[in-house]
């Protein structure tokens, strides 16, 4: 433990969300790290102090699934806006996706992206490299200093054109990932099935038909393939934005049988149903599609049972102009990094009002902090404990407020949650001991978020 005389900030709280549960305590912070978690304040009088009062102090949240659109798609989103949305949503670390223009398919492309972002992000970050459909074998030699995880799109659309379609190439990716110790993250839908359906009854021309055109069958078929490839080759695979009960069951069963399979649930699959897509149209047009109430219920049940490893926003903004194109031309995706934690909190409090809020807070910390930190090996992240990075989210659990477009920090300026009455509010977000979001003044901090190196620290 570092010397207490290097303490620069003291945060006192009645509800610190630690790996051992919720407790009252005092965080002694210095040099961007938590130096000690104690019962009492032992710092010199001159040190700056912050009292979190009744707010939960969560570990800085980690969103392991964002599309911040640099390079090439910065009309949709950029790191200034995206990281402001993250900070306002309590998120201090993001993992960014490779479907940019050009796509991030090589170590050089990852390095170029990192250079573009330096000085433009409020939050710490790392990148999922994209699997090159022509060269999946690159994963076997992937430098963990560049990326430790790789994204495979098994289905695509115009914002996700780099799809590993060929079965032999897909298998090569699993072999190479196992060899290189790379964590795969997968958009697991069978694009060929969707093409088959489109060829039969034409592309969807109304949002009432959208879910039927991108059915659960596509997800189930792809997840079954992934289970088989993991069984055969042993690669670690994380299924992103899982949308149906059947997929949740398949992945959970495979995991229970000892396979290194995990899954993510998104804020939007927990918050909306196909009825919303009929009402909101393109705003909740998602890939994978938002499904019915029974599926949403099953995803919540999975969350309560501890089955997913991460929650993600899949923050994938598109402009209003793009979203108001015809049904055939409108791209899937919505902004969500700002809404994720509050939307999930709102859902938990509404669904399980009898639950001890401390249990809900620990669940949030697990899915949005320790879970992603462990899965993606983010040293110093995800836990409030001595030695960890001083990333904190001060969260007021009972505040209610209505979300309007005026509060949206994503560059696209809209949210599918507009008009929602939210429970819970992010009062303050702190990264490396410094405030990057302050709700009272609606101000942000310094754009000096770090590129996280998985090979550093412990
Ligand atoms: C994503 C996007 O726009 O980048 N869209 C989405 O609906 N989730 C890409 C994707 O995952 O398909
Ligand atoms: Zn996806």
UniProtKB/TrEMBL annotation:
InterPro entries cross-referenced by the UniProt entry: Amidohydro-rel, DHOase/Allantoinase_Hydrolase, Dihydroorotase_CS, Metal-dep_hydrolase_composite, Metal_Hydrolase
Q: What keywords are annotated for this sequence in UniProt? A: Hydrolase, Metal-binding
Q: Which residues form a coiled coil?
A: none
Task: Please give the superkingdom of this protein's source.
Answer: Bacteria
UniProt domain Amidohydrolase-related: residue ranges:
56-435
The record's GO CC annotations read: cytoplasm
**What does this protein need as cofactor?**
Zn(2+)
Basic and acidic residues: bias regions: 315-325
In residue numbers, the region (Disordered) covers 311-333
**Mind listing the GO molecular function terms for this protein?**
allantoinase activity; metal ion binding
- Which GO biological-process labels does this protein carry? purine nucleobase catabolic process
Q: Which Pfam family name is an example for this entry?
A: Amidohydro_1
Q: Does the keyword Disulfide bond apply?
A: no
Q: What does this protein do?
A: Catalyzes the reversible cyclization of carbamoyl aspartate to dihydroorotate.
**What family does this belong to?**
Belongs to the metallo-dependent hydrolases superfamily. DHOase family. Class I DHOase subfamily.
User: What is this protein identified as?
Assistant: Dihydroorotase family protein
- Species of origin: Streptomyces boncukensis
């Amino acid at each position: 433990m570092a010397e207490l005389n290097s303490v620069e900030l003291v945060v006192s709280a009645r509800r610190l969300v630690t790996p051992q549960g919720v407790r009252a305590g005092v965080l002694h912070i210095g040099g961007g790290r938590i130096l000690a978690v104690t019962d009492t304040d032992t710092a010199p009088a001159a040190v700056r102090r912050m009292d979190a009062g009744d707010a939960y102090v969560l570990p800085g949240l980690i969103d392991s699934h964002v599309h911040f659109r640099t390079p090439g798609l910065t009309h949709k989103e950029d790191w200034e806006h995206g990281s402001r949305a993250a900070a306002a949503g309590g998120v201090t670390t993001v993992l960014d996706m490779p479907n940019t223009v050009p796509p991030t398919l090589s170590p050089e492309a990852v390095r170029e992206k990192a250079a573009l972002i330096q000085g433009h992000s409020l939050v710490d970050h790392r990148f999922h490299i994209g699997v090159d459909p022509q060269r999946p074998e690159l994963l076997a030699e992937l430098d963990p200093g560049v990326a430790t995880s790789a994204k495979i799109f098994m289905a695509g659309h115009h914002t996700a054109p780099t799809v590993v379609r060929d079965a032999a190439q897909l298998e090569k990716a699993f072999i190479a990932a196992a060899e290189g110790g790379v964590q795969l993250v997968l958009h697991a839908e069978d694009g060929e099935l969707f093409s088959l359906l489109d060829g039969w009854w034409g592309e969807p021309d109304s949002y009432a038909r959208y879910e039927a055109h991108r059915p659960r069958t596509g997800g189930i078929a792809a997840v079954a393939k992934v289970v088989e490839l993991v069984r055969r080759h042993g690669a670690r695979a994380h299924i992103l934005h899982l949308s149906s009960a059947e997929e949740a069951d398949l992945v959970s069963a495979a995991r229970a049988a000892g396979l290194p399979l995990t899954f993510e649930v998104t804020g939007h699959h927990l918050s909306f149903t196909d009825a919303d897509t009929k009402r909101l149209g393109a705003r909740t047009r998602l890939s994978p599609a938002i499904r019915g109430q029974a599926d949403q219920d099953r995803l919540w049940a999975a969350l309560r049972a501890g089955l997913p490893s991460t929650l993600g926003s899949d923050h994938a903004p598109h402009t209003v102009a793009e979203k108001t194109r015809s049904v055939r031309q409108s791209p899937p995706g919505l902004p969500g990094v700002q809404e994720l934690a509050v939307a999930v909190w709102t859902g938990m409090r509404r669904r399980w009002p009898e639950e001890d809020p401390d249990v809900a807070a620990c669940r949030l910390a697990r899915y949005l902090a320790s879970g992603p930190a462990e899965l993606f090996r983010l040293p110093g992240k995800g836990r409030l404990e001595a030695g960890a990075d001083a990333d904190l989210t001060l969260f007021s659990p009972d505040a209610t407020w209505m979300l309007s477009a005026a509060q949206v920090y994503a560059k696209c300026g809209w949210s599918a949650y507009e008009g929602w009455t939210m429970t819970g509010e992010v009062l303050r977000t702190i990264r490396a001991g410094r405030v990057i979001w302050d709700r009272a003044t609606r101000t942000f901090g310094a754009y000096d978020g770090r590129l996280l190196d998985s090979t550093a620290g412990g």
